[in-house]
Amino acid sequence: MKKDWKQKVDRWLAGDLDVMAHITDGAEVRDVPRQERKENARAAQERVLETAGAKRVISAERKGFYTMYNVIAVISCITLIGVLLFTVANLPRYGEENPRTVEVVSRYVEKGLEETGAVNIVSGMILDYRAFDTLGESHVLFTALLCVMILLRRDKKNEAMAPAGARALGTDAYYNIAKDPIMRTVGAFLLPSIFLYGIYILLNGQNSPGGGFSGGAVMGAGLIIFASAYGFGTVDRFFTERASRIITFVSLAFYSFAKGYVFFTGANGLDNHIPKGTPGAILSGGMILPLDIAVGMVVACTMYGFYSLFKRGSIGHD
Amino acid sequence: MDFITNIPLFTIVLSLFSGALCFLLSGKTARKYTLIYEGILTLACAAVLWYTVRTGSAFTYVMGEFPAPWGNEIRAGILEAGTALFFIVIMLCSVSGGYRFIETDLDESKTNLYYALLNLMTAALMALVWTNDIFTGYVFLEILTLTSVGVLIVREIGRTTLAAMRYLILNLVGSGLYLLGVVLLYDVTGHLLMVPMKETIAQLWELPGYHPILILATGILTIGLAIKSGLFPFHFWMPDTYGYATPASGSVLSSLVSKAYIFLLIKIYYRVIGTQIFAQMPIGRILLVLGICGMVAGSLQAMRTNNANRMIAYSSAAQIGYIYMGIGVGGGPGFLAALFHIYAHSATKSMLFLTTPRLAEVSGGSLKFRELQGSGLRDRDAGLFFMIGAFSMIGIPVFAGFSSKILFGLAAVDSGSSIKLIAVMLALAVSSLLNAIYFIRTVIRIYSAPEEGKKTKVRAHHRPGYNIPMLVLTAINLFLGLFSWMAAELVQRGLMMFG
């Protein structure tokens, strides 16, 4: 009797519930050489992927869990949809008399050109009236790039993770790129106009629909097509990881400091000495053009970076 | 205008710049830079706090040449400055207390990316604290979401990848709901800045037909932030997320990221909805119920684990429940207690997450209770700090946890509703008991003599540098416990400035 009690206390002290406890066992050990630690971690990663693939391992231990899960998920989705539809039906109708204030919108529309110097009011709004939000938004992209690099990047120091064939054959040959004559011919015709168009959108953000995000996306897409037509080796000649890092850093740093300067002068009631220019000309809209260029560079680097990281695990070899 | 009023702007812009800079630096340089930068940031935030306490009023800062309601704005009062200072101190302690593990857990080639993420996270935390505009809140919420997933996956041991998937999906659902709430509020008010929005909402509340929309918008926004901060029943991502991340990340995620969401929520209740209107909405009561459920459920689950980190993570779920219970009790004292508990819990939880890996280190790298037996004797410093943290979590007098429990009780008494009073008191009693059961169990474990025949390494003393962040956290904990009236008064004044 007494022993039984002791056992119970002991079990309570130890606790036991973690379906997947066996998986990370080896990986928690830190006091071993770096190489061994890496191998442990890799083994754990593989075990998890196996276990996660075989859903039944967990569902066998929690019978009925997934049935309930599906039922509850469907019910809550339907409820949420119902609630949202009800809300939308209750919103004030468009054009109807309502107490909603329009002072913000009307000033953007009426005085936007005069105050920001940008014909394209949207650019004026996101890069001048509400520039702080856009400052954050351009860093969201950068953060996403960092996360993808953490997940996917392989370099000389952890090359063991690269597929063996890629090392033997070289990246392009391994991934079967740059052998397609159709891609190359079409690319030769299309690429110059794609890049030119990207630059045009980028530089005309203050005058017509477009700007940093869209222009950068077009240029990034151009780089991606270039890489798939002519191979990563060709892109690596002019666009390495180092170049990408420097371009991203310079653009973001310029963005932060330029906007910091404008915020600082604006809040302290100082003149910021930035000319507005003639509305409609390329050099107009104050800071909008340089900011668009900075954003465009970051977007282009990020787009191509994503493609390259997903395809071969690095942005470019130095 | 005093120069000090520019500091909030600098904290955000320079943190963003530091994120981009660490992308270029090598891992070691990035670490040094981050530590120095965060040290400077601490002083800067302290200066703002001193300034707001001295002037006794909050100031708004126009971001650019266009004043509200057309341009962005940030705002600093006692509460904002105090929270920013507190967050940055915890961040500094987590990084300096956990960098040793960062070095062993991460690929060398990825350490600089980790510090870049931490700096971006700092920027997002600062922006969420200072913001006076709910859409700016959304943008920096996104940065916080992505960086928090990034600092989790950087330790590649499989479970973090799984945990990160779940965390990312739930977080994105949360962001989406928050955005929906913002869009609905913008649609009916035509404003995004908090002050004009609040005025319009006060007018709309008097009109017929606007109650459902306002309640639903606030509710959706609340659910979004509740999912992100891990309120019951959305707390199931917590153990995997906090338990397997590298210790610095676990500490930052549990004590800063989830708290920043709650801080934003409180700010919205005060500065967008208005406490009087909020009190008429049913949301508070729902939060009260969910908070109490979370307090009990989290503790029950914590009791059933066999892994110290998972236990602490589940206990986080319980503590988040406390905070939401405070919001649910409502009124000035309720929000005061909730905010106080944010600070008390952050200081304690970061300490616990930073000590368990040290205990594991002298127990063959395992966090299982069986292996941890006697680890407090093998690494005495870590054992002592773990015990302090555990006592604070239980709510033993002198420590911070005790003061926040008293404040919750007082808030319930002040609420004037006997049902709330009984519910809160019962929940506090049950939850404290459960807390005591599983934390005392762990303390007994780490201080009982190890089984015979077990060969484990003894670490008599560390380099003193490892203990400094722990001492700072202990000091904060004791300050919140012994001088709680001082902290509570500051929070009180900050809430008055909130409006």
Protein model, in words:
The complex is a heterodimer of chains A (318) and B (499). Chain A has 318 residues and is mostly helical. Chain A has 2 domains: 1-100, no CATH class; 119-312, no CATH class. Chain A is built from 15 helices and no strands. Chain A has helices spanning 2-14, 21-24, 34-53, 55-61, 65-90, 103-116, 121-129, 131-152, 164-169, 171-174, 181-203, 212-230, 232-238, 241-267, 288-312. In chain A, helix 7 (121-129) packs across helix 8, helix 12 packs parallel to helix 15 (288-312) and helix 14 runs antiparallel to helix 15. Chain A starts with a helix and ends in a 6-residue tail after the last helix. The mean pLDDT of chain A is 80. Chain B has a domain at 282-499. In chain B, 79% of the residues lie in helices and 2% in strands. Chain B is built from 21 helices and 2 strands. Chain B has helices at residues 7-24, 27-55, 78-105, 111-130, 134-153, 159-189, 194-206, 211-229, 238-244, 247-273, 275-280, 283-304, 308-329, 331-361, 369-372, 375-378, 380-394, 400-415, 418-447, 468-482, 484-498; strands at 59-63, 72-76. In chain B, strands 1-2 form a two-stranded antiparallel sheet. In chain B, a hairpin with an 8-residue loop joins strand 1 and strand 2 (72-76). In chain B, helix 4 (111-130) runs antiparallel to helix 5 (134-153), helix 13 (308-329) packs antiparallel against helix 19 and helix 18 (400-415) runs antiparallel to helix 19 (418-447). Classes of the chains: A mainly alpha (318), B mainly alpha (499). At the A-B interface, helix 1, helix 2, helix 3, helix 5 and helix 6 of A face helix 1, strand 1, helix 3, helix 4 and helix 5 of B.
Brief sketch in words of this structure:
Chain A is mainly α and 318 residues long. Chain A is built from 15 helices and no strands.
List keywords for this structure.
heterodimer, A: 318 residues, 15 helices, extended, B: 499 residues, mainly alpha, two-stranded antiparallel sheet, 2 strands, 2% strand, globular
